[in-house]
Amino acid sequence: MEKSLKSIFVPQGLKPLETPVLAFAFLGDAVHTLAVRTKLLENGFTKVNNLHKLASKVCSGSGQSKMLDDIVNMLTEEELDIVRRARNTKTHKPPKNLSLEEYKKATALECLLGWLLAKGEFARLEELLNLGLENLKEKVC
Fold first, then answer.
1. What's the pTM value of the predicted model, to 2 decimals?
2. Per annotation, catalytic residue among 29, 69, 70, 81
3. Backbone torsions φ then ψ of 46, nearest 5 degrees
4. Which of 33, 68, 115, 127 could make an S-S bridge to 24, C-beta 3.0–4.6 Å?
């Protein structure tokens, strides 16, 4: 039986207001990674080794933190609330290469993306990803 992508990628029965924000980060990280990998292919990068290296730059904590900085002025109040909740959530110690602030911003971006996906707000998710990845070629080269 064929399923639509929506039924595969949008969690069924998930209640966005009752779900811990860090659960959205788990989902949002995958959304961000898939978007970055897709954009890299669209930009003409095709060598697998290069793709991995370039994606690692953008999908890193610092890359995600920068993306949040790039789109934060375009967020609605509701989206800003999710970002604030995520940034204020108690987290583990950040990786050695990231400051605590960068780590929290990266987590906040992941939460926002996962939350939008869980709500089925595909148009808004697409808009924010496109804005955040607008100059991807310049960011990775």
1. 0.90
2. 29
3. -130, -15
4. 115
